[in-house]
Amino acid sequence: RSVAFSPDGKLLATAAERVMLWDANNLTKIAPLEYEAMPWSVDFSPDGRWLVSTHSDGTCLLWDVVQRERGSNFSQHSDAVHSVAVSADGRMIASGGEDRSIIIWDAEHKLKQTVLIGHNTRVMAAQFSPDGKWLISCDQDGTMICWDIEQRRTRWTQEGTRQYPNYSVDVSDDGRWVAASNGIYESSSGRRVIDSAQYAK
Asked: Which string of DSSP letters, residue by residue, matches the chain?
């Protein structure tokens, strides 16, 4: 369902039947991170010291990577959590899922910062901008929303269809572009510059 490399490239985390840590150099298992509910998504903090995992019971878990121990438990979603992203400075965590909401967490104080509501189907992916001022999210219907985090409002919305759903989204290092399953967009306006459907044949 999800994979993530640690920032130094030495570790790999996977979310399938369970969350597993791997040695990225030789692809050997290091340790499972045990939790009873099915995992959906994983992401490392920028310093690689902790890992966030999301689960089918609506839980987001914070793991100490060195100690292989579970730390904080974020349980504010009412259903499965499909996506997670950590901001570049490590101060925020975004989780989104089946309940159609995105929760922004204060990672330092382990508190809910805000809830973003606007999707009509399950949130499949989310990603912060490099400066942490905005967030991109996408849902099963292919709709993508750019959120102003500080103002807690949408900057723009691109409607999608189930024919071209969005299951992933990413932001370029300079923050100018957004790449999603169905195309590439200008982050400032939401204008699609490349349509993936053109290359599907």
From this structure: -EEEE-TTSSEEEEESSSEEEEETTTTEEEEEE--SSPEEEEEE-TTSSEEEEEETTS-EEEEETTTTEEEEEE---SS-EEEEEE-TTSSEEEEEETTSEEEEEETTTTEEEEEEE--SS-EEEEEE-TTSSEEEEEETTS-EEEEETTTTEEEEEE---TTS----EEE-TTSSEEEETTEEEETTT--EEEEGGGG--
Sign of the C-alpha dihedral, residues 169, 172, 174, 176? Answer: negative
Mean pLDDT on 24-42: 94
Q: Are 48 and 65 in contact (CB under 8 A)?
A: yes
Decide if 126 contacts 136 (C-beta within 8 A): yes
Residue 110 above 70 pLDDT? yes
Amino acid identity at 131: D
Calculate mean pLDDT across residues 156-171: 80
Using pLDDT thresholds of 50, 70 and 90, give the confidence band for residue 168: confident
Query: Which amino acid is it at 143?
Result: T
Average pLDDT over residues 98-114: 92
